[in-house]
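ligand=NAP
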Amino acid sequence: MKTFKVGIIGATGMVGQRFAILLENHPWFQVTLLAASARSAGKTYEEAVGSRWAMPKPMPQALRNLVVRDASQEMEAIAKEVDFVFCAVDMPKDQIKKLEEDYAKLECPVISNNSAHRGTPDVPMIVPEINPEHAEVISAQRKRLGTKRGFIAVKSNCSLQSYVPALHPLMEEFGVTEALACTYQAISGAGKTFETFPEIVDNVIPFIGGEEEKSELEPLKIWGKIEDGRILNAETPSITTQCLRVPVSDGHTAAVFVRFAKKPSLEEVKARWAAFRGAPQELELPSAPKQFLHYFEEDNRPQAKLDRDLENGMAVSIGRLREDRQYDYKFVCLSHNTVRGAAGGAVLMAELLAAKGYLD
Ligand SMILES: NC(=O)c1ccc[n+]([C@@H]2O[C@H](COP(=O)([O-])OP(=O)(O)OC[C@H]3O[C@@H](n4cnc5c(N)ncnc54)[C@H](OP(=O)(O)O)[C@@H]3O)[C@@H](O)[C@H]2O)c1
């Protein structure tokens, strides 16, 4: 595989920092450009991030003195200097939509963590183990945008990154008809740490703006089908969620209840999880977890603190599968929200797109 020059738009933020450390020593992607708002532009990365550095590892040495660029004002130059960009910015949705389309139209592919384009029918929202074939819609998107190379591909919301992978291997054979998920979401999902979000200590906040809508609708796009150059959402399963913010630094947990058309045995569910492999494992992509879904037999697992970093934060942990009085089964699952749920998921998607030639 050739080496790609990569830019990070929103490099100073929580997800941007995650990209910076995940891409340090990446075999295919070399970060050569960092961009953020006018507030950071012109400063070195180290100066621009300052005390906001929230990663468990130090800032990569190679990036410390890189001068941060203005993502909006220097778009044409940025698009020329890199092969593609990762994008994770905190801006109004209409501005993000325009920013990402402008980069794509400048023939710079955009791998995005933002929600702005998740509803755009010809923009694929790819969980590489689940719907790699949705990349095929990129040709229709390129036609609409009038581009040869440029396109946008998006990462789904972090909340669903634990329960959608757990439900997926059960869908075809057993027909998941209804799922209920209550999520217990980490503060890094709001771009916060305990220092910047002291009101979360000893507290639970029962509202995360827009999160329940995303958690209920986005899975239907992921399970959708391409028809006439658009992704048509799946009609089932019916999903309902409640999303709470809890005092955890990293790792979103979900308590899930599920009903099937044809109820499997407990052993069948566990066997499907254990056997599940997708395109990243088949293609041996650099960031792919060897075992995507890990089942814990212990009653007190998965735990955010113990299990979020499983397989470098790229695996999903599941536990407590048991019969339910109202639904067929219930279980608990966990994924690292800024790794698999954000930057790591986007890096894996970019690896998949690179392996399939979409970034050439
Ligand atoms: N945190 C998560 O777990 C998570 C998961 C999935 C998706 N996301 C999504 O990822 C995006 C970023 O989230 P975050 O948690 O990383 O946010 P964050 O920590 O608040 O960082 C926001 C980033 O956006 C940049 N930015 C703000 N206004 C800008 C502008 N006008 N032009 C260019 N850059 C601008 C900031 O640059 P300055 O430093 O210069 O202000 C900073 O780099 C959001 O859309 C979020 O919904 C987050």
